[in-house]
Amino acid sequence: MFKRTKVTDGTATGQGPDAENWDGKEVGFRKKSKVPGVMITQYIEKLPEGKSHPDFTRKPIALTIQEGKFAFFKAIVTGDPKPTVVWSRNNGDVSDPARYQSKYDPNSNEHTFEMPHVKPDQADTYKCFAKNEYGQAMVTVVLNVIEVGFKMTKAPQQQAEVANCNFKKVLKRRSKVVPKAEEPEKKEGEIDPKFWELLMSADKKDYERICAEFGVTDFRWMLKKLNEMKREREEEQAEFVKNLSDLKPIHINADGTASFELEFDLLDPSSSIYLYKDGEMIPYTKELGDKMKHCLRKVGRKYIFSMRDLMPEDAGFYQLDVEDVNMFSTDFKMVDFLVKIQEVKAMEREDAVFECVISAPLSKLMWFGKNMPLEQGDKYDIEVSEDKLIHRLVVKDCMVVDKGIYAACAGIKSCNAWLVVEADKGAPKGKKTARKTTRAGGSGTDLQKVAQEQQQILDKEREERKEKIKAAREAAAEAAAAEEPEKTADSGAGKDKGAAVKVERIDKTSVAATTTVAGDSGSGHSAGKASGGAKQDGSHADAGGGHSAGKASGGARKDGSIADAGGGHSAGKASGGAKQDGSHADAGGGHSAGKASGGAKQDGSPADAGGGHSAGKASGGAKQDGSHADAGGGHSAGKASGGAKQDGSHADAGGGHSAGKASGGAKQDGSHADAGGHSAGKASGGAKQDGSHADAGGGHSAGKASGGAKQDGSHADAGGGHSAGKASGGAKQDGSHADAGGGHSAGKASGGAKQDGSHADAGGGHSAEEASGGSRQDGSLADAGGGHSAGKASGGAKQDGSLADAGGGHSAEEASGGARQDEPLADAGGEPGITSGLSDIHAIRGQPAELTVKMNTDCDGAWFKDGEPLKSGGGISITKDANIHKLTIHSCRDTDSGLLRFVSGDLSTEGRITVGDVPEFDEDDLHKFSKPVIVRVGQNAAFKMPFQPQESLTVSWFKDGTELKDGGGVKIVREPNHSRLLLRDCLRSDSGEIKIQLKNPFGAVEATSQLIVLDRPGPPEGPVETVETTSSVIEIKWNPPKDDGGSAVTNYIIERQERGHSLWTKLGDVSAEKTSFRDRNVTHGKKYSYRIYAENPQGLSDSLETADSIMAGIMILSGPPGKPKVVSTSKTCINLTWTPPEDDKGVPIIGYQVEKRKKDTNQWLALNAINEPIEDVNYAVKDVTEGAEYEFRVSAINESGAGDASPPSAMACAKNPNMRPCFKDPEDFLVVRAGNSVRVKISYEAEPPPHITWLKDDEPIAPWINVINTEGMSQLVIPSSKRSDSAIYTIKAKNSVGEAFFDVEVRVTDEPKCPGPVELEQTVYGKVAVSWVPSPDQELDDRLYYVVSQHDSNTRMWKTVADRLFANTYTAHNILPGIEYHFRVYAKNDMGLSDPSQSPTWGANSNRVPISSNGVSSMEISFERPPSILVPLKVHTPPKGYQLYMTCAVRGCPTPNVSWYLNNTCINSDKNYYITNSCGVCSMYILRVRENDGGEYRVVAVNSLGKAECSTKLTVRD
Asked: Could you say which of 89, 286, 742, 1063 is the most buried, measured as most Cβ atoms within 10 Å of its Cβ?
């Protein structure tokens, strides 16, 4: 007994138990593994402590590998006791140790399944079982093998299915484009199949290019054929994919790979996708890795095929197939560079040109600059010539940054060159030069000439292809227009004609050679297929020229003769007879839509089955003696067939216009059998064995005209009848003539049977039924003809040569000749027939079954079962009611199955009866299945239904009447004794009726269950209705949700939001029965929004929210405020003010809303939202456009909203008020060091904007002086100033209101040069006149003056005694004798002091004579002194960003230590200041003055004797 499976996971309420068996063991409880895809079955319900069932910690991974490689799977299993691991495969065994090896590594606990040198037949689904005494674990893994050298053109192969010992034919992939190695030699004018494949995947705009490439000029023919092929291809594609779109041909990417793309949806995700190159399958990987060259990856619906490491051999024709249907084709061409791009040297701001010529037309090249792809735009122009051979790249306005390597790529071919950009040395420094109009570069060769030569080569190749195709078509047209050759024999007239005709074989793409033959089967205009016959002796088989829709086929020869099967106009099949002796078999010329077939010859004579216009089949008779069998010329729609000959005679089965079958009789003696009737039935010549003539032709009957059988050389004639029935000649064995022809009956005219040479005539009848000649064995004539009866005229049976006549009657009944043994006439009527016969039936066991046969006459019959006669009894009843025969089985049993047959005379019908049962369900299983399955959203729902195994059982699953298919979220498992349905990730919409149907030939049975998917309820149904609104209460109402989520709604939750607030507050909940709510906590005049949630055990629904806010009470709006007034306007702002409304309706005003309307428009635009009121009564409107005119209105806002709007204001224009120009805080004096730039900035105000003019000393400024005007400011800039630029500059601003002037003095100067030599002269006592030569800068600088410093030997300090001296003399006072004096003279201007000019020494020591000490030692003199400042710091006011030198002179002994301070902070170590001390001259240098460099600078000199300091201030100007 099987243990019931206990579902512990993955199932839901209502699912039935499962029963399974593996390897004969009892299977119990299904367990879930931590590793996805592992199936675990536990044998016992509770495991002993410390024991465990098997499980996989590492499962095998699916593998796709190339043929001949080493394939292996690895798995790691756990379990206590240690599991046993077994490997198997679905379709085969793994017992061969040479191909399959199982290994185990105890160190790593890995189980390995190895397949060395894997073969394609090893591709399969493999299973790994791990089993111990407590359970088993199983996992499946797929192995795919890519066959090496796998060709699309390989013949179908067979692969064994070991599992069920069946063998299936596995069709290999096949393409219309074959590999080059297997490509047959192309015939003259043949179109490459790639042409059609490319057209079916190309855009319409590319049709002309593809046609030109392949030399196709007949576009109408091309489009017609292409549409037919597209329809066929789309039908094939629809079986595997849908939504095929976005076909992008192969192209080279920027990263050096090539790719093509297309989008489609696979109907079956497991469908195989194949890639081909030139007809040969290529392996690919799913990702573009390092090991595989080709990659096919899927991105959404898009499939992208990529190739890396491109080489010249990668060029070719690529195709993508799904299963065996082509989806996309593209041609990857290799283009070479005839002229490559050359290095370009361009000047700055000049255009650079790269150009090249390629070997084949391309609409676009890939251009790269410095490894970046370039596109057409402002910087680059990409040009292509009309013939698409010359390509140019123009780099516009070259700058130095554009230099680098540029490349052109065409497929995998590329060329590159440098672009060198040289700076323009003649351009003014610091000024951008104008763009040049010249172009630099080019190839240096005549590109047009090279392109024309290449175009001529391409045109020549194209014309050659066109000529080939044209020649083929002209040859086809000539053959079609040729006259129809003469027939070898004229069917229907009984004439044997031989003719020599010229046959040309023409097919779509080639023209075969022509020949002259002894017989003809050509010139027909049938639309079929013309095929040459099979020859084994080198002779010529011609099956051409036929326009038949059928098949014209030459006969088979083994002796060197020629078999012709052509020319027929038949839509059927014209086939030449078989010859083995060199004779000519002709099956052609017929216009029949049927089949024209030449007879079989073995003696060298020609067999003719041609010329017939019949729509049936014209067939030449069989000859074995060299005679001529003719089955041609008939216009019948039936079959014209020549008789069989073995003696060299002529069998003629032609000329008939019948729509039936004209067949020549069989001859074995050389006589002539003619079957050439015009009947629409069948005209057949009789059988001859003695050389006589059997004629079954000429009949116009639509029935069957058949010549009688002759064995004695006599002539059997079954022809000429116009009957629509059957005209048949009698059987002769004595050489007499049997005639069954000429009848106009629509029935059947049949000649009697003769064995004595007499004439049996069964013709001429006009009966609509059958005129039949009697049976004779003595040579007499049996006549069954001439009757016009609509019944049946039948000749009697004769055995003595007498004539049996059953004709002439006009009765609508049946005239039947009696049976005769002598010569008197016997009249017989119609024959019995079966109008309703037996067929195969399936009977249900235990139920009655009835079989009925209906005859056209009342006649007896017998029943048989499996060959044994049946009689009534034993549960079977056989009854007869007039012409209806019944067999009834009262209760069917298994023994009643068999083949039943009903026989009545020579008539019989049969049918098979099979007894069985309708499928059934077990009642317990049916009861369990009927329980509803309840799952939550996102869970899986599983259904299982056991049943008894049966043959021919079809299992189907339905949901709400729609059949479910395996795939996507639906998984259907069909086992012999049960079926399972799994619905993954259920949604609420998946709820419904689930039905399983079991169906066999005896009937069907169904079982129904319900799937309930629980979810949150849907939102309550809206809209929310306002039942009541007062100043203290708001009542709302809603409707229950349409979908309760599978479980009843328990309650509703209500939330509220006050208008102007973002917070939602929960008000409470109400029961599910109540769908209304009263909100009592409201404030009059305020607006509220509400939202309602429905709740069930699964959670909250989405909310239903009120469309608009609901006001508590009646809306009271304020009156209109006063008319707004425009206070001021500017181009960016308009200031408004207004007065509050006179009537606020008793409700406080919260604020105001301002609206604007532009002139000439009707729309008012709010400048602020209602929930963002303007609290004041004035507002600055900044959302304006300069120059536009606006009017404004204001509304007062209270709790109820915005009230009535005020009257609109006057129109206000957004512009500044008119004003006369005026300058703001200008500087009137500016000193600049020579060489620095001069910048004079003047700010102004004016409306409208003024016209600015600058003057220099009342003259226009020089062209090199720049003037920069911006809004509200004008700048005068002198880039590099000179002393001559010193002048008074005047700015003039003028507008419509007035004008203004302002003068700025600019002084360009430098530190002055020192004065000349100083002279001293004493004029009076105590005074010394100091004079000096003027400084060279005195004439250049009218602001230069002099400073005089004095030094005496008493104080030993320099002090300034005169300053701002504009003269060159100075008188020094208080000059005392005995004291030495020194003077220094400095030149000074706005830039500072010059170097001093030193005077000679004045005083006692200057004229003193040295006095000898006379040995008396004098005192040592000490030179130590404290520090002193010789030259103090000067005041500096440099502009921001300029450089600055600050110097002073310090003296002291010992040499003092000097420190610099800025705002009392030592800056000696600050890197922003460069400080030096050279021989007492202390300097500080600032490269660029900053704002924070301003302040008080102080220099402190300290030594051991004292300290000295000086200071100054630095002001930084903007």
From this structure: 742
The Cβ of residue 1427 has, within 10 Å, a number of other Cβ atoms equal to 24
Helix axes 219-237, 193-201, angle to 10 degrees: 70
Name the nearest CA neighbour of 1208 among 1222, 1194, 1229, 1220.
1194
- Label residue 184 by pLDDT band (50, 70, 90): low
Q: Output phi, psi for 1481, to 5 deg.
A: -90, 110
Q: Tell me the Cα Rg of the chain.
A: 59
Contact 448, 360 (CB under 8 A): no
Which of 563, 649, 646, 647 has the alpha carbon at shortest distance from 610? Answer: 563
What is the Cα–Cα distance from 280 to 560, expressed in whole angstroms?
A: 41
Closest by CA to 625, choosing from 562, 689, 564, 563, is: 689
Among 1500, 1495, 1496, 1470, smallest CA distance to 1482 is for 1500
pLDDT at position 1304 is 92
Helix (H/G/I), strand (E/B), else coil: 1505: coil
The beta strands (E) that lie in 1373-1422 are given as 1381-1389, 1392-1393, 1397-1398
Write the CA distances from 22 to 88, 1004, 1201, 1386, integer angstroms. Answer: 13, 30, 79, 121
Name the amino acid, one letter, at 407.
A
Instruction: Lay out the sheet containing 651-652: strands in order across.
Output: 541-542, 563-564, 585-586, 607-608, 629-630, 651-652, 673-674
CA separation for the pair 402, 165 (Å, rounded):
74
Integer Cα distance of 484 and 610 in angstroms: 11
Bridge partners of 1166?
1155
**Could you give the 3-state DSSP secondary structure of residue 888?**
strand
Judge whether 738 and 732 are in contact, CB under 8 Å. yes
How far lies 748's CA from each of 11, 416, 722, 781, in Å?
Answer: 73, 90, 11, 18
Q: Which tokens in the block code for residue 1485?
A: 């240098």
What are the tokens at 349? 């701001």
Do residues 1401 and 1330 make contact, with C-beta atoms less than 8 angstroms apart? no
d(CA 614, CA 635): 4
The per-residue pLDDT for range 407-426, each reduced to its tens digit, is: 988 876 788 899 999 887 77
Average pLDDT over residues 1208-1234: 89
Q: Where are the strands (E) in 975-1124, listed by range?
A: 978-983, 992-1000, 1003-1014, 1021-1029, 1034-1039, 1051-1058, 1065-1071, 1076-1079, 1087-1096, 1099-1100, 1104-1105, 1110-1111
**734 Cβ partners below 8 Å, 6+ apart?**
711, 712, 714, 754, 755, 756, 757, 758, 779
- Check residue 1167 and report its DSSP letter: S
* CA dist., res. 1012 & res. 963, Å (int): 18
Amino acid at 984: R
Beta strands 1201-1205 and 1178-1181, pairing class: unpaired
In the chain, the amino acid numbered 162 is V
pLDDT at 665 over 70: no
CA 1266/CA 1268 separation, integer angstroms: 6
> Rounded CA gap, 676 and 692, in Å?
17
Q: Which residues contact 25 (CB under 8 A, 6 or more apart)?
A: 43, 136
**CA neighbor of 1092 nearest in space, from 1053, 1066, 1065:** 1053
pLDDT confidence bin for 179, thresholds 50/70/90: low
Instruction: Kindly write down the DSSP assignment for every residue of 481-544, as one continuous string.
Output: HSPPPPPSSBTTTTB-----EEEEEE-SS-EEEEEEESS-------SSEEEPPPBSSS--EE--
Both tokens assigned to 874: 């034993």
**What pLDDT is stored for residue 149 in this prediction?**
53
What's the whole-model pTM score?
0.31
Q: Which of 261, 273, 313 is nearest to 146 (CA)?
A: 273
Mean pLDDT along residues 791-818: 35
